[in-house]
Structure formats: structure tokens, C-alpha cells
């Protein structure tokens, strides 16, 4: 039995010593999100595209077969005495096998592969930015649970104070200094505070369940700790800035590829087969094997300035992206300044809260002495005690609001 009790105490201490930080929850939520698999899909997609481009350097082999009937065939319009000229048949048959091998493409394949890589990097960055938005839910529910945890602690302290006062009243009731009515009033206050605690317990359980669903972690309220915030770190490190630059790099590669159709291509080719008549010698009508091999150059010399116009379109797109970046940075700056003002406001409010709470504690202590001396009523004392509890709750709310503002500042600037 003693061993079981020791194990239970050890387990309790272990659980209490566990800490689940906000950053841990964010990482777990990202890992659990289906969006985390998008980068893998985009890389696989890019790999397949590039394999298709590289296949242009592999030999291409085609097989053809045809049978035809011609209304006219090659023939001399006159006869030559003593010379017999074979008549070419109008029915013709042919089976061929063709092969070609790219020898030079002017770097066109490399440009297309570079474009695919750049586009994939942009898509991965965009998916990571979407994944970052998962943390907004985690932050909201984590801070909610943390605030409720602190509020529950304040409520428990209020209940303890009321229970202590009830114990004292019961003790002095025998001497006639306290009445049953006074004890009943305390019971009413205890039940009111207990109802508040019950409501807080329900709310924190709801927040923890949502947090567990988002992260896949088994989180208890005792594991939550306030995150450390560096309020001085205001540099803009948003991933969107990387995305804007990545998009511009993609357009730079596209600009290099805009005249890709004008690049000369050198191709080795060969063709062989069987035909009747022989395509290489039409007068060999019985049919025979044939072949042809060589090298050819494909070069589009003029595209009516299509490449130039495409380049101009892409340059305009770069300017559009730059304006989007400037607008994004301006919005971040405006929001950051607003949040900094909130932080300063809550810092001032917390300083005032501490002073007000200290004064209210003095008032409660004075009412307590007066109640013992019979110069004040239990109702007045309870009012002051409730005021202290409300002030402590407000202090915790302002602490969470300051913490939330600090996290928002770090989040909006890409530092969290």
C-alpha cells in the first residue's frame, strides 16, 4: 500500500513538473496539420516536371506504317525507243522506324528546369505561410486557457478566504458574537464564488480540449506557462517578404526564357524501313529495305517580337509584386504601431492595478478588524472582499491582454 501511494505521489510530481510551452503547441499543431505535407507534394511535382524536361535528351523512337493509293505517279510524258522504263505502281506500302537524338538545345532545358525550381520554391513558401496561420488558433486557445487557469486560482483563493471567515463565525457563534444569519450570508457568497469557479472550470476544459485537438498533445492546465516575450524585437521578418522575393526571382527566370523559341536546336536523326516501291528508289517497285541518317538544325529566326512583348509583360508583373510588397510592409508598420500603443497602455494599467489592489487589501483588512469589533456589518465586509477579488481578476485579465499584445506584435512581425 505504501509503495502504491509513493508511486502515485511520484506520478503527481512528474505530471506537475511537465511544462508544455506555447512554442511546443505551435510546432505540434503545424506537424499535425495536413498542410505540412504540401511541401513534400510540391517537391515531388517539381521532380516529375524536371524528369520530363530531362527526357528531351533521351533518344526518341517512332514506328510508322502506311498503305496508300495515288491517282497519279511519276511517269515520262514520252517514250524512249528500245528502253523499257518500269512503271511506278499507284498502290504503295511502307513501314518505317525513326529515331532522333537531341545534341544541342541552347540551354533551353536548363532554363525550364530553373523556372520549375523557382516556381516550386514560391509554392512551398506560400504553403508554409498558410501553415503559419495554424498558430493563430493555438495562441488564442493557449492564452485563453492560461488566463482561465489564473482566474481559477484567484477564485480558489477567494473561496479559501470565505471558508476561513465562516470557520471563525462558527467558532464565535457560541459566544453570541455571530448569528446564523451571518453564517447563511457567507454560505450564499461561497456558493456564488463556487458557481463562478464551476463556470471557469467548464471554460478551461473547453479550451484545453480544443488545444488538444489542434496539437495532438495531452495538455493539462498545470502544464501551461506564460511565454517569454521580447517586446524590443520589432524587426519585420515575415515570410511573405521571402515570398515576394521568390516570385520576383521566378519572373527573372521567366524573362530569361521568354526568347526560348529563338534558340537553335541541333538534332541527330535516322530512319529505316521497308517499302514497296522503295521510297529511296521509286523505280524499285518490288519493295526493299531502305534507310536515311543525318543531322539537322531547327532555328526559328523571327517571332514577330513575341519574346520582347512577353519580357515586357513579365517586367510589369515584377513591378506589381513590388507594389504589393510595399503595401504589405506599410500595413505591418501601421499594425505594429497600434499594438505598441496597446502594450504601453496595458503596462500602465498593470502598474495602477497593483496600487489599487494594495489599497483594497488595506480596506479589506480594516473592514475585517471593524467586523471583529462590531463597528461594521458582514455585508459591508463581503462587499469589500468581492471588490478585491474583482480587482485581482482584472489584474489577471490585463496581464493576459499585455501578453496577447506582445505575442501579436511578435507574430505580426514574424518573430514568433
Tell me briefly what this model is.
The model is unreliable at 1-17 (pLDDT under 50). Among the domains are: 140-225; 231-264 and 310-416.
Shape: rod-shaped
Strand fraction equals 5-15%
Number of helices: 9
| Uncertain regions spanning at least 5 consecutive residues | 1-17
Strand order, largest beta sheet: 1-2-3-4
List SSEs in N-to-C order. Answer: HHHEEHHHHEEHH
- The radius of gyration over CA amounts to 42 Å
pLDDT averaged over residues: 89
Describe, in plain words, how this protein is organized in 3D.
- The structure is a single chain.
- The protein is of the alpha+beta class and 416 residues long.
- The protein is 64% helix and 11% strand.
- Among the domains are: 140-225; 231-264 and 310-416.
- It has 9 helices and 4 strands; from the N terminus they run H-H-H-E-E-H-H-H-H-E-E-H-H.
- Helix 2 (22-32) crosses helix 5, helix 3 (38-54) runs antiparallel to helix 4 (108-132) and helix 4 (108-132) packs antiparallel against helix 7 (239-256).
- It is rod-shaped, with a radius of gyration of 42 Å.
Amino acid at each position: 500500500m505504501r509503495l502504491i501511494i509513493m508511486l502515485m505521489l511520484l506520478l503527481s510530481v512528474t505530471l506537475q513538473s511537465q511544462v508544455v510551452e506555447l512554442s511546443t503547441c505551435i510546432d505540434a499543431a503545424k506537424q499535425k496539420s495536413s498542410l505540412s505535407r504540401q511541401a513534400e507534394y510540391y517537391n515531388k511535382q517539381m521532380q516529375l516536371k524536371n524528369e520530363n524536361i530531362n527526357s528531351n535528351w533521351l533518344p526518341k523512337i517512332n514506328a510508322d506504317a502506311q498503305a496508300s493509293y495515288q491517282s497519279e505517279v511519276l511517269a515520262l510524258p514520252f517514250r524512249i525507243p528500245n528502253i523499257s522504263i518500269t512503271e511506278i505502281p499507284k498502290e504503295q506500302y511502307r513501314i518505317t522506324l525513326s529515331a532522333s537524338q537531341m545534341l544541342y538545345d541552347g540551354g533551353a532545358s536548363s532554363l525550364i528546369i530553373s523556372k520549375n525550381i523557382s516556381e516550386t520554391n514560391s509554392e512551398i513558401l506560400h504553403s508554409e505561410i498558410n501553415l503559419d496561420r495554424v498558430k493563430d488558433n493555438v495562441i488564442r486557445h493557449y492564452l485563453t486557457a492560461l488566463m482561465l487557469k489564473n482566474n481559477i486560482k484567484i477564485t480558489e483563493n477567494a473561496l479559501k478566504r470565505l471558508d476561513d471567515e465562516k470557520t471563525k463565525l462558527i467558532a464565535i457563534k457560541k459566544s453570541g458574537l455571530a448569528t446564523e444569519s451571518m453564517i447563511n450570508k457567507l454560505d450564499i457568497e461561497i456558493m456564488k464564488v463556487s458557481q463562478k469557479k464551476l463556470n471557469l472550470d467548464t471554460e478551461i476544459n473547453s479550451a484545453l480540449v480544443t488545444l488538444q485537438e489542434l496539437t495532438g498533445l495531452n495538455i493539462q492546465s498545470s502544464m501551461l506557462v506564460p511565454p517569454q516575450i521580447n517586446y524590443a524585437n520589432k524587426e519585420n521578418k515575415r515570410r511573405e517578404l521571402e515570398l515576394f522575393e521568390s516570385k520576383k526571382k521566378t519572373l527573372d527566370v521567366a524573362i530569361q526564357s521568354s526568347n526560348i523559341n529563338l534558340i537553335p536546336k541541333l538534332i541527330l536523326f535516322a530512319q529505316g524501313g521497308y517499302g514497296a516501291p522503295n521510297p529511296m528508289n521509286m523505280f524499285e517497285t518490288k519493295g526493299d529495305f531502305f534507310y536515311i541518317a543525318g543531322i539537322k538544325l531547327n532555328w526559328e529566326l523571327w517571332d514577330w517580337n513575341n519574346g520582347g512583348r512577353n519580357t515586357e509583360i513579365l517586367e510589369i508583373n515584377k513591378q506589381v509584386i513590388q507594389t504589393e510588397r510595399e503595401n504589405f510592409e506599410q500595413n505591418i508598420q501601421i499594425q505594429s504601431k497600434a499594438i505598441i500603443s496597446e502594450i504601453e497602455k496595458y503596462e500602465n494599467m498593470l502598474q495602477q492595478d497593483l496600487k489599487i489592489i494594495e489599497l483594497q487589501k488595506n480596506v479589506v483588512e480594516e473592514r475585517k478588524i471593524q467586523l471583529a469589533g462590531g463597528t461594521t456589518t458582514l455585508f459591508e465586509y463581503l462587499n469589500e472582499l468581492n471588490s478585491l477579488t474583482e480587482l485581482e481578476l482584472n489584474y489577471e485579465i490585463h496581464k493576459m491582454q499585455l501578453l496577447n499584445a506582445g505575442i501579436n506584435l511578435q507574430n505580426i512581425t514574424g518573430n514568433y
